[in-house]
Amino acid sequence: MLRKLVFGGFAILFVWAGAALSDELTIGPTPVPITPDLALNLRGAGSYASVEAMLRGPGTRIGTSRESDGPHEVRAWRDSAGGTARAYVYDSGDFSIVLRPAGEAQDIVLNSFGAFVCPTCSPPVNACGRRPWWVPHDVHFDNFDCGCTLAGPQSLGVGRC
Question: What domain of life does the native source organism fall in (predicted)?
């Protein structure tokens, strides 16, 4: 009984200690400030390698999905002010990026299909770009509803609908 109790205590301690790790420790830092100006520069990135070069590093892999509607990995960066960037990198080589500058309440979203949604840019921009492969052709796709699918398949739940 004592052995079971002691082992159980260590297991709880191990789980609790793992949960105590801060997100700030796991997300790769970037010396580049995450701002609307960075988003404008990233808009011209022709490849994910260009994105990594502009953010000065590969970021930290924070997730992977092998779902059939869009196999991808998610990479993340954090700047010194607390701004964040997440890149969804698809097996096809396509990508989308979601930026949240420090102190801002809205995301800036862009993808390799020319989409660029930047409510904090001056003037604000809302461009859907070309239809990504992850948007089925039976789905209506225009400036009013493309926000649901800019970062990836709607099943990801990234974007604003």
Answer: Bacteria
